[in-house]
């Protein structure tokens, strides 16, 4: 903003910029610290032999000890380590058009057409839960419960927003 | 009937005998009676003959009408590639788009004026799409504007036509399914034939066509005279109708009886049908060339065969050549006998000029034109024999050979023109390069490639021979070979299942292993480098493909469990439960391996691979659709951990040379396979969108200088580097958590400990001990500290 006033000389510009940058610094720093936060170093843990896999060279094979005991109390890493894969946003228009198309066939009870259209959608995004749900519903209506269940399970696995509908479908398919 | 008929004539002769008394009259009478007797005796055969003639004509009439009214030809099934779909976000290179448009015979132009044209300006491509029907859906004509950036369609705009968020181009024809006698044609209707072609045909072959009734006595007489003069057969007197009858109904014999049949049938044909119908049938029937075992019939297909153009687009000299070929397509073959063909063409041009079909200026210009047939190498008639082979095998489950080769079915397949092109090119070029680099005999190596779309299980490309046009032994489907280390992911998947105590950081001994066999034999597998690596993490055993560790792991789990996993992965072959199966004694074809690896690529969802989407009859009525079907899935969490390990194979293990030529940002997963004496070089790997399986080896099963990494992986890398594809994102199930573990002993560690590695575990199966940590400061933190 200061730059907009012509009266300010070039000398004055430098401190103004610096102060702006410095003003950001604490925020940047705290962001960095947050991002870099991780599990504390475990240097207090004693070095120990895991007891596993001491095998003789004759090739006699020992199964490892089944793991029991208390679970480690440490928290798993924050989930943002492997974020949910984001669908390329640019596919969205095509996917939505297909979804709309398939829904329309569902409304018309044209199950086979709905299946065909949903398959077309899955060719573009194989983890798009709604297409699996449409396939599940269509196969249910066609009386193929085995396929309906498998597609519904896929829908459950990949669903984000319409999980309730999928759960209902899965429940219906239990019987 | 026969008893009644003689009576009136015998009565007649009796009465005539009574009437005459004199000798003269008796003599006359006897003469008369001789005649009448003769008449009496010859009447019968005559009448029988007449009856036979009538029956014969009736028979010919029925057969002429039966064949002419019914389905005239056995039409081979037409096989189509998958239609190219365009939508914003689609991954496609400019070269692939151009190749697809060229396969569909869209023409590049400066200004778009009609459907079937396209133009490019920088990164922008405009296409005037054609309308077409498929599966009961109509895609109308459109004008579409595309922006391509970095192997992606970044924007799609419908400039004219029905708005759409995605659209498909018509599917490209890739081949046919032929009967034993490989007669092929593309049916044309008379209204689609350029008038000049019909006129030229009549002018050259049968000038009186419009007037005669099927046979032309004048033509026969003229031909006889010419032949008599020259002392040999130089001219035929057959009309077009007779030629049609000869080809259509009769065999090739030259007996007189056949000539009579031909003439009679011609008359009948003319009696029943119009000249237009006869001419149209003739133009579809006539033999015009040969393409390998395939016979080219009719002008429609001939135009594509010789000039790679639709019939409507032919120019005068090209029309003249086709008309000239009617006389003898093999004698005047323009590739084999170009001078003869040129002479014949110019003769036809002169006849056309004589008959005032063309003016002398056109004649002179046309005579100077070269033959202009497509170069022999560029003929694209039998393009993808290995893929068509797969299609045929899948079709045979539902259709008879007869139906496939005669009913003109339309088969819509999953072949992707771009994937197929890359697979063919990669195999052909890389094998030649490898032979050169490793100094082995030229053409001694063979190979096969299969590319599958992950998720749909659709086979996009099949190459069964290093010469992809060669329709011989299809290695992709029929070469059953030991799969070597390609089996290892199945062993590790079994170990990662819930009922087994292993996770990716479990320690396994890679020391020498010996297993007693049933007949006192001892199986002692060795590592490729002949070394033991001590205790290794489970993930490292896969990354570096350690045989000793894998064999030990497999024996601990149990052969039956590993065999069960293989069957769950869709392996149909009987699995012999012997220790050697753990290192890939199992023999599978590249197609079988594709099915198995597709389950790994597709997050554990097992499904049969498919090459066909749907089949329509000749009228566009759908007969069959081949839907996506799912088999029983594998444990998702186990597959997700396996995918992670197979990604590590590419990043740091036996597959890492791929990244010398691929961007690190493209996440891939895969596994090499090498068998004893390096007889087989395998690689199977996948991205988020494609799975490609490559096999290299020798047909005589001899040793090669190739490992999975130096051979098959290189072909695979060629393919992936040219095919627009996307990273494999491992989908995390809720029970998956990523933990830092010590790189050597697999115990829990931390991000800031030296040698710590991050890998996925399930919540109920993970390392419990904690390793010592040699603290290393986080580089960013370190940098930050300097500032504050």
Can you describe what's shown?
- The complex is a heterodimer of chains A (175) and B (788).
- Helix content of chain A is 54%, strand content 0%.
- Chain A is mostly helical and 175 residues long.
- In chain A, helix 2 (92-107) runs parallel beside helix 4, helix 4 runs antiparallel to helix 5 and helix 4 (129-141) packs parallel to helix 6.
- Chain A starts with 9 loop residues before the first helix and ends with a helix.
- The longest helix of chain B is centred in the N-terminal third of the chain and has 47 residues, at 23-69.
- Chain B has 24 helices and 30 strands.
- By secondary structure, chain B is an alpha+beta fold.
- The model of chain B is unreliable at 1-20 (pLDDT under 50).
- Chain B is elongated and about 145 Å long.
- In chain B, 39% of the residues lie in helices and 18% in strands.
- Chain B has a five-stranded mixed β-sheet. In chain B, strands 3-4-5-8-9 form a five-stranded mixed β-sheet, covered by helices on one side.
- The chains are: A mainly alpha (175), B alpha+beta (788).
Which chain pair shows the most residues in contact?
A: A-B, 66 and 79 residues
The span between the termini of chain A is 68 Å
Structural category of chain A is mainly alpha
N/C terminus separation of chain B: 129 Å
Largest sheet, strands/sense/barrel of chain B: 5 strands, mixed
How many helical elements of chain B? Answer: 24
Kindly estimate the percentage of residues of chain B that lie in beta strands according to DSSP.
Answer: 15-25%
Structural topology:
The complex is a heterodimer of chains A (175) and B (788).
Chain A: H1 10-36, H2 92-107, H3 111-124, H4 129-141, H5 145-158, H6 163-173
Chain B: H1 6-19, H2 23-69, E1 77-80, E2 85-87, H3 94-103, E3 107-108, E4 117-121, E5 124-129, E6 132-134, E7 137-139, E8 142-149, E9 152-160, E10 166-168, E11 173-177, E12 183-185, H4 195-205, H5 217-230, H6 240-249, H7 256-272, H8 275-285, E13 287-291, E14 294-297, H9 298-307, H10 316-325, H11 338-354, H12 360-368, H13 385-395, H14 401-406, E15 410-413, H15 417-437, E16 446-453, E17 458-463, H16 475-478, E18 481-482, H17 488-496, E19 507-509, E20 515-516, E21 522-523, E22 535-537, H18 538-543, H19 547-557, H20 559-568, E23 587-588, H21 590-601, E24 612-616, E25 622-625, H22 636-652, E26 669-674, E27 680-686, E28 690-697, H23 712-722, E29 736-742, E30 756-762, H24 779-787
Parallel strand pairs in B: 1-15, 3-4, 12-14
Antiparallel strand pairs in B: 1-11, 2-10, 4-5, 5-8, 6-7, 8-9, 13-14, 15-24, 16-17, 16-28, 18-23, 19-22, 20-21, 24-25, 26-27, 27-28, 29-30
């Amino acid at each position: 903003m200061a730059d907009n006033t012509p009266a300010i000389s070039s000398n004055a510009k430098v401190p103004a910029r610096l102060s702006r940058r410095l003003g950001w610094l604490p925020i940047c720093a705290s962001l960095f610290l947050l991002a870099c936060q991780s599990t504390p170093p475990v240097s207090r843990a004693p070095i120990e032999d895991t007891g596993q896999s001491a095998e003789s060279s004759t090739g006699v094979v020992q199964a490892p000890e089944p793991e029991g005991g208390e679970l480690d109390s440490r928290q798993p890493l924050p989930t943002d380590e492997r974020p949910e894969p984001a669908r390329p946003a640019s596919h969205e228009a095509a996917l939505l058009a297909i979804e709309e198309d398939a829904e329309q066939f569902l409304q018309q009870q044209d199950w086979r057409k709905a299946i065909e259209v949903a398959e077309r959608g899955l060719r573009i995004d194989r983890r798009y839960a709604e297409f699996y749900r449409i396939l599940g519903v269509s196969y249910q209506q066609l009386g193929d419960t085995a396929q309906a269940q498998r597609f519904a399970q896929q829908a459950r696995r990949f669903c984000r927003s319409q999980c309730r509908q999928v759960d209902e479908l899965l429940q219906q398919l239990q019987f | 009937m026969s008893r009644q008929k003689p009576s009136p004539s015998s009565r007649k002769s009796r009465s005539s005998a009574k009437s005459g008394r004199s000798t003269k009259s008796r003599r006359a009478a006897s003469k008369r009676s001789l005649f009448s007797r003769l008449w009496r005796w010859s009447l019968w055969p005559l009448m029988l003959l007449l009856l036979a003639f009538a029956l014969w004509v009736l028979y010919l009439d029925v057969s002429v009408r039966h064949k002419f009214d019914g389905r005239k030809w056995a039409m081979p099934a037409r096989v189509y590639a998958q239609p190219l779909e365009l939508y914003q976000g689609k991954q496609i290179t400019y070269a692939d788009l151009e190749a697809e448009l060229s396969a569909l015979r869209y023409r590049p132009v400066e200004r778009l004026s009609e459907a079937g044209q396209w133009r490019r300006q920088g990164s922008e491509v405009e296409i005037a799409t054609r309308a077409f029907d498929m599966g009961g859906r109509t895609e109308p004509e459109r004008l579409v504007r595309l922006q391509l950036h970095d192997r992606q369609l970044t924007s799609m705009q419908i400039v004219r036509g029905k708005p759409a968020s995605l659209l498909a181009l018509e599917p490209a024809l890739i081949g046919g399914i032929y009967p034993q006698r490989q007669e092929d044609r593309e049916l044309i209707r008379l209204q689609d034939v350029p008038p000049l072609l019909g006129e030229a045909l009549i002018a050259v072959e049968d000038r009186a066509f419009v007037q005669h009734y099927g046979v032309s006595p004048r033509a026969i007489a003229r031909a006889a005279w010419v032949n008599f003069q020259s002392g040999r057969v130089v001219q035929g007197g057959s009309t077009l109708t007779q030629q049609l009858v000869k080809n259509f109904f009769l065999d090739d014999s030259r007996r007189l009886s056949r000539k009579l049949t031909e003439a009679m049938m011609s008359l009948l044909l003319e009696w029943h049908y119009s000249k237009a119908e006869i001419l149209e049938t003739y133009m579809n029937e006539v033999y015009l060339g040969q393409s390998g075992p395939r016979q080219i019939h009719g002008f429609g297909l001939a135009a594509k065969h010789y000039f790679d153009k639709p019939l409507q687009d032919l120019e005068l000299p090209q029309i003249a050549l086709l008309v000239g070929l009617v006389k003898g397509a093999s004698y005047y073959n323009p590739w084999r006998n170009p001078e003869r063909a040129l002479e014949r063409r110019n003769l036809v041009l002169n006849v056309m000029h004589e008959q005032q079909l063309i003016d002398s200026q056109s004649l002179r210009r046309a005579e100077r034109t070269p033959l202009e047939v497509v170069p022999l190498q560029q003929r694209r008639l039998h393009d993808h024999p290995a893929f068509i082979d797969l299609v045929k095998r899948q079709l045979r489950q539902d259709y008879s050979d007869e139906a496939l080769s005669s009913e003109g079915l339309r088969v819509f397949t999953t072949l992707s023109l771009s994937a197929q092109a890359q697979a063919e090119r990669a195999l052909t070029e890389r094998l030649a390069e490898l032979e050169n680099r490793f100094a082995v005999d030229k053409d001694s190596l063979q190979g096969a490639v299969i590319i599958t779309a992950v998720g749909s299980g659709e086979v996009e490309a099949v190459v069964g021979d290093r010469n992809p046009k060669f329709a011989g032994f299809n290695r992709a489907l029929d070469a059953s070979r030991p799969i070597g280390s390609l089996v290892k992911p199945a062993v590790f998947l079994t170990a990662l299942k819930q009922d087994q105590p292993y996770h990716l950081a479990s320690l396994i001994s890679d020391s020498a292993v010996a297993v007693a066999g049933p007949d006192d034999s001892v199986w002692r597998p060795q590592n490729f480098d002949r070394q033991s690596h001590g205790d290794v993490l489970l993930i490292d055993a896969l990354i570096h493909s350690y045989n000793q560790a894998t064999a030990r792991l497999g024996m601990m789990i149990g052969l039956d469990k590993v065999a069960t996993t293989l069957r769950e992965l869709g392996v149909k072959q009987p699995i012999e439960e012997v220790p050697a199966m753990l290192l890939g004694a199992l023999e599978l074809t590249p197609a079988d391996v594709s099915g198995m690896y597709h389950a790994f690529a597709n997050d554990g969802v097992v499904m049969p691979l498919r090459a066909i989407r749907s089949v329509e009859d000749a009228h566009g009525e759908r007969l069959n659709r081949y839907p996506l079907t799912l088999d029983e899935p594998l444990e998702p969490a186990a597959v997700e951990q396996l995918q992670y390990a197979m990604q590590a194979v590419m990043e740091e293990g036996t597959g890492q040379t791929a990244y010398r030529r691929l961007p690190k940002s493209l996440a891939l997963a895969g596994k090499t396979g090498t068998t004893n004496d390096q007889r087989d070089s395998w690689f199977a790997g996948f991205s988020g969108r494609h799975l490609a399986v490559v096999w290299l080896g020798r047909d005589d099963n001899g040793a090669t200088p190739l490992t999975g990494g130096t051979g098959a992986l290189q072909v695979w890398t060629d393919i992936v580097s040219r095919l627009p594809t996307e990273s494999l994102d491992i989908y995390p199930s809720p029970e998956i958590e990523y933990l830092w573990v010590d790189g050597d002993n697999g115990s829990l560690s931390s991000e800031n400990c030296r040698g710590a590695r991050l890998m996925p575990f399930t919540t109920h199966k993970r390392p419990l001990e904690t390793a010592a940590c040699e603290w290393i400061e986080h580089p960013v933190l370190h940098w930050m500290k300097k500032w504050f």
